[in-house]
């Protein structure tokens, strides 16, 4: 798939990042592993705002309470 400039941090043109596809796959796999193994709870009463520069990100961060999820065996859940 043609990905030039769709995600600005990888840049574009003949010297664009050669690892862009790998990095996007790695990000997807990392996110899947995080949500499988941890639960995320938003810390209340935060002012969450967005800043746009080379990338779009939160202005002051986005704080969450992260807890390890209890592992449930797929076989045990099916019984
Ligand atoms: C989120 C992850 C990544 C970001 C944001 C990123 C970003 C960039 C950027 C901005 C450039 C410079 C492009 C230019 O000069 O116009 C670059 C070059 C490069 N990146 Fe990445 N990169 C990432 C991950 C990776 C990975 C995982 C690899 C290899 C497995 C990789 C390999 C390279 C190489 C070899 C170049 C030099 C390309 C050249 O000069 O021809 N990058 N990257």
Automatic annotation (TrEMBL):
GO molecular function term, any single one: iron ion binding
Similarity annotation: Belongs to the cytochrome P450 family.
Pfam families in the record: p450 (PF00067)
This protein's record includes keyword Metal-binding: yes
Binding site for heme: 17
Superkingdom: Eukaryota
Keywords: Heme, Iron, Metal-binding, Monooxygenase, Oxidoreductase
Name of the protein this chain belongs to: Cytochrome P450
Source species of the chain: Solanum verrucosum
